[in-house]
Amino acid sequence: MEQGAKVALLSPEQLKKKFPWINTQDVALASYGLENEGWFDPWLLLSALRRKALSMGVLHCHGEVTGFNYVTQEMVTSDGDPVNFRRIHEVIVQAQNSLETQPVECMAVVNAAGAWSSKVAEMIGIGCGSPGTFQEFKLPVEPRKRYIYMFHCPNGPGLDCPLLIDSSGAYFRREGLGGNYIGGLSPLEEEEPDHSNLDVDHEYFQQKVWPLLAYRVPVFESLKVKSSWAGYYDYNTYDQNGVIGTHPLVPNFYFACGFSGHGLQQAPAVGRAVAELLHNGQFTTLDLTSFDFQRFIFQQPILERNIV
Ligand SMILES: Cc1cc2nc3c(=O)[nH]c(=O)nc-3n(C[C@H](O)[C@H](O)[C@H](O)COP(=O)(O)OP(=O)(O)OC[C@H]3O[C@@H](n4cnc5c(N)ncnc54)[C@H](O)[C@@H]3O)c2cc1C
Question: Where would I find the FAD dependent oxidoreductase domain in this sequence (predicted)?
Answer without folding.
Answer: 3-277
